[in-house]
Write a structure and sequence with these properties.
By secondary structure, this protein is of the alpha+beta class. Among the domains are: about 80-150, SH3 type barrels, CATH 2.30.30.40; about 175-375, Dbl Homology Domain, Chain A; about 385-525, Pleckstrin-homology domain (PH domain)/Phosphotyrosine-binding domain (PTB) (PH-domain like). It has 17 helices and 14 strands. The strands form three sheets. It has a seven-stranded antiparallel sheet with strand order 9-8-7-6-14-13-10. A five-stranded antiparallel sheet has the order 4-3-2-1-5. The radius of gyration is 29 Å and the shape is globular. The relative contact order is 0.09.
Length: about 600
């Protein structure tokens, strides 16, 4: 009885929403007029030619009313919660797929990894949903998942203990599944097309609704500020319009399951690399935007831009997050499409190759993002070293590979206890202070590009005429100079040998992938590190951690007050899958000067 009442309430609420749509056009017309008068945000009125027109000079228009009245076959997180809850109330199994990792230490929240499937049990709140994963029920952020296109298959797979009747039903279900595979492929194809069209509208709204208006107000924004906030999103818009046209050419409107879109991803594979720059720039954009939003005139200005462009009710930082989300969705969509594409299908090989290609694009973006995070840490580490000489470490290196203590044997046979840091291209030697053992003094470095690694057995070394244990040496290819090192344990030596091999491999991989950090990014990292330390050796600071979640009520209380939203810093930080944190930076933390 409660379910019937619930559905009736949903229908009443939907009727109100439908009636609201009738008034929305008039409402936006009034808001548009008010916004333009209050904040002097000018409307182009269609007379000014767009600077973002493709080579053919054409563009398919999707009006605000069309988007509002459309009935897409997919559901997006944070969208129609009423429809989702109605499905759940009707006994359907509604599952979502994790876009990114959700790491939490709170037992009252549901942790998961990118790609995990979560059963949605309640979606009344647009920001936090209640779900189940691996026999645990808890709250999780809705923006971290996307609902599966084909929920029917999940319902069929949710049967419990087998019996004769259930076996027969399962057999019939499998038969129906084979018959409906074309329909399931149709669903995925349509989702790809629909989300791509909506994404294009979001990009156009950003470029024409925000960027164009900002450029007209030179007193409020500098060129540098706009470059920081919006990055290369105009290039992304131009690229995505071309990509959508390629998709439209391959889309079979009459029989979508026959569409062959895999070639579109393969032909544009290199073009997706432009997302790397945007994703790397995004954290800085968030900081710049947050600083501006502290002033009321900027908050009012951006809101006026949104109303004038008749954009959906999402803040500007939400719009700027969409490209980061989009590049993460492609591999998931292609994986689901591949699942419902038979090997006999003409597009099977291209879809399979496209899936691998888009995974590689996402991995490349993740790697570049990780490199940028790494150079900030390396810069702060260098500032903490006393007596640094020569070029900055970032001039040639961008990643710490290994660190630890070794005994260096000089030509005269003297032993020197040193702490070594192996970066790509360089091995840096430091000495601990006798009294303050966490203070390091710079003692030199070796060019790993010029070195050859030689493993030594225990016993007397012929070149040095010394008896050594757990030793290896680096020999210069140009000067033939020999550098002899001894580890305390055999395990330590093995780690160093492996680290040296990893260093050569990573250098080669970076070269093949074209992995380069711009000079401006390196200079900015050093400048920020010097400002943080006021030019002095103050030690390495830990990376900022994600802000703690707001406290939740006990887990057994289903209907509780949710946090107002997912912290934006956490969303940005988790917009791409995280690697496991390295222990080397904890070593840095121990080996740097005392904090005040």
């Amino acid at each position: 009885m409660g379910i019937i009442i619930h559905i009736q309430q949903v229908k009443k609420q939907r009727k109100k929403l439908d009636q609201g749509l009738i008034l929305k056009k008039e409402k936006y017309r009034k808001e548009k007029k008010c916004a333009s008068l209050s904040f002097e945000v000018s409307s182009d009125g269609g007379t000014e030619p767009s600077a973002l027109v493709d080579d053919n000079g054409s563009e398919e228009d999707f009006s605000y009313e069309d988007l509002c009245q459309a009935s897409p076959r997919y559901l997006q997180p944070g969208g129609e919660q009423l429809a989702i809850n109605e499905l759940i109330s009707d006994g359907n199994v509604v599952c979502a797929e994790a876009l990114w990792d959700h790491v939490t230490m709170d037992d009252q929240e549901l942790g998961f990894k990118a790609g995990d499937v979560i059963q949605v049990l309640e979606a009344s709140n647009k920001d936090w949903w209640w779900g189940r994963s691996e026999d645990k029920e808890a709250w999780f952020p809705a923006s971290f998942v996307r609902l599966r296109v084909n929920q029917e298959e999940l319902s069929e797979n949710s049967s419990s203990t087998p019996s004769e009747e259930q076996d027969e039903e399962a057999s019939q279900s499998r038969h129906r599944h084979c018959e409906n595979k074309q329909q399931m492929r149709t669903n995925v194809i349509r989702e790809i097309m629909d989300t791509e069209r909506v994404y294009i509208k979001h990009l156009r709204d950003i470029c024409e609704g925000y960027i164009r208006q900002c450029r007209k107000h030179t007193g409020m924004f500098t060129i540098a500020q706009l470059a920081t906030i919006f990055g290369n999103i105009e290039d992304i818009y131009k690229f995505q319009r071309k990509f959508l046209k390629d998709l439209e050419k391959q889309y079979n409107k009459e029989e979508p399951h026959l569409s062959e879109i895999g070639s579109c991803f393969l032909q544009n594979q290199e073009g997706f690399a432009i997302y790397s720059e945007y994703c790397n720039n995004h954290p800085g954009a968030c900081l710049e935007l947050a600083n501006l939003m502290k002033q009321g005139k900027y908050r009012h200005f951006f809101e006026a831009c949104r109303l004038l462009q008749q954009m959906i009710d999402i803040a500007i930082d939400g719009f700027l997050l969409t490209p980061v989300q989009k590049i993460c969705k492609y591999p998931l969509q292609l994986a689901e499409l591949l699942k419902y594409t038979t090997q006999e299908h003409g597009d099977y090989s291209n879809i399979k190759a496209a899936y691998e290609a888009m995974k590689n694009v996402a991995c490349l973006i993740n790697e570049r993002k990780r490199k940028l995070e790494s150079i900030d840490k390396i810069a702060r580490w260098q500032v903490s070293i006393v007596g640094w000489e020569g070029l900055d470490i970032l001039d040639r290196s961008s990643e710490l590979i290994h660190s630890g203590e070794l005994t260096k044997i000089t030509k005269q046979g003297k032993s020197q206890q040193r702490t070594f840091f192996l970066f790509d291209h360089q091995l840096v030697s430091c000495k601990k202070d006798l009294l303050r053992r966490d203070m390091l003094y710079y003692k030199g470095r070796l060019d790993m590009d010029e070195m050859e690694l030689v493993d030594l057995g225990d016993g007397r070394d012929k070149d040095c005429n010394l008896s050594v244990k757990n030793a290896f040496k680096l020999v210069s290819r140009t000067t033939e100079e020999v550098y002899l090192f001894c580890a305390k344990k055999q395990e330590d030596k093995a780690r160093w040998l492996q680290a040296c091999a990893d260093e050569r491999r990573r250098v080669q991989e970076d070269k093949e992938m074209g992995m380069e950090i711009s000079e401006n990014q390196k200079k900015l990292a050093m400048l920020n590190a010097q400002k943080a330390g006021h030019g002095k050796s103050k030690g390495y600071n830990r990376c900022p951690v994600a802000p703690p979640h707001q406290g939740l009520h006990p887990i057994h209380q289903r209907h509780i007050t949710m946090p107002t939203s997912v912290p934006q810093q956490q969303v940005f930080g988790l917009a791409e899958p995280k690697r496991k944190s390295s222990l080397f930076w904890h070593t840095f933390n121990r080996l740097t000067p005392f904090r005040k």
